[in-house]
Amino acid sequence: MQLILRQPALRTIDDDATEVVIAASPDTFGREPWQWDVRVAAMDEGYRVTAAHNPANIKILEEDLDIHDSYQAIRGVDELWLAVIMKHSVTHGVFTLHAGDVAIWEGDDPVRIRLDAVEGDACVRLIRIARRDGKAARWVP
Amino acid sequence: MYILNAWYVAAWSSEVSREPARRVICEIPVVLYRTEGGEAVALEDRCPHRGYPLSPGRLVGDNIECGYHGFTFDGSGACVRVPAQDIIPKQAFVRSFPIVEKDGWVWIWTGQKELADVAKVPDTHWMSDPEWVTVTHSMPFACRAELIHDNLLDLTHESFIHTSTVGDDYIYKHGITVEVDGDVVSADRLMPGVVAPPLYARTMATEGLYDRFHCTVFYPPGYLLLHSGITEQGRPREEGYLIKVMNGITPIDAHNSWYYYAFSRNFGVDQHWATEELVTGLATVLEEDKDALEWQEIGLQSRPYDVRDSLIAQDAGVAKARKVMERLLAAEKQ
Lengths: 141, 334
Known about the structure:
The complex is a heterodimer of chains A (141) and B (334).
Chain A lengths: L1 E4 L6 E2 L2 E10 L10 E8 L2 E8 L4 E10 L2 E5 L5 E8 L2 E3 L2 E3 L4 E4 L6 E6 L4 E10 L10
Antiparallel strand pairs in A: 1-11, 2-3, 3-4, 4-5, 6-13, 7-12, 8-11, 8-13, 9-10, 9-12
Chain B lengths: L6 E6 L8 E5 L2 E7 L5 E5 L13 E3 L2 E3 L6 E2 L5 E3 L17 E4 L2 E5 L23 E9 L3 H9 L4 H4 L8 H4 L3 E5 L2 E11 L3 H7 L5 E10 L3 E9 L9 E13 L2 E10 L6 H30 L14 H18 L1
Antiparallel strand pairs in B: 1-10, 2-3, 3-4, 5-6, 6-7, 7-8, 9-10, 11-17, 12-13, 13-14, 14-15, 15-16, 16-17
Helix pairs in contact in B: 1-6, 4-5
């Protein structure tokens, strides 16, 4: 499953009107015990990305990618990946993602991730989420 | 609770005539009629005198006369005649609604008049394009409008509800791309190398394997456009047999909705037998949806309030659409 969230924001949170939860498990209040969430805030100087998780159950790896030409990787089918475009634009398949846009991938399709810089060097925050018990990490609506 | 600052489908153009027609939209009673010049009029369907509906009344020129005591109103909602006296009470007026008529659809703006933006009336141009041919249906569904939104944003139900027409197990086996752009939510599924759906296969004169796709785009709160079709394997979508399904979903009240459905295709345009076949087949599809969603409405009405849906990844479009609707509703309350 692929989810693409375009700027502007989807949901404001109580303590900061500019910050939004872009994905979470669960994403519905009170549904299941909280596991993780990723928030993005629009700042004057760009975007601030905050990832929080329950370390007992979840592993999160964050990486800043400077994409001069292309970034390619294979995502584990049990992993959930989020790419937040921090600067400039990239393409992923038929989609062009601009600064502030977010792509989320989970499940068995797509596993081949390829981000191509459109013009100039693109900066992308890549967040990889996995469960410690080896089961599949999911964005739970 | 309804999002009122929005365009909703009130009727087909063919349903608005010199005979007043009643609709209830977001719990607002509305009477629709045409002036002698053919202009569509929408007024609140409740006489200010004593609350009798105007729709059972009669048209007098461009005005509508209440069938109870003869209070008469012009197309702006102003009272122009009170038969029993010469003075017209100041409070004797009915609300009028902005109306747009386009491609055979009649759209009504149910919110603040000054916010009615004609540019926001959804695109339905396939209905009047001679290169496309259209089948329409409309029917009341005894379910809340949101269930129809969900139904169209998660088409995996086709594998189970519509097995004889557009369904196949391969649908739920393929993932989706959900895109959220401002208030617009889309859910796109590409199904490479599959057979054409049974309902269209004969019209399309297809054999073998194709790439099938469907992409539902939700323009909240009341319109969903489904881009669907099949192409030769590996070929661009625009080269294929294309279908545009326009879905106008208009709340009647918290548990009932009007479903206005238009199915336009760019293949077999001159094949009248195909159109006739689709009239029947698509009615079957809608009846199957109606049956399922009305049962779902019954299920939800008896469900404890603290039990929530157990959405899965295939519901990503559903989940995001619900959040957009919540946000729009909250914004309108402010």
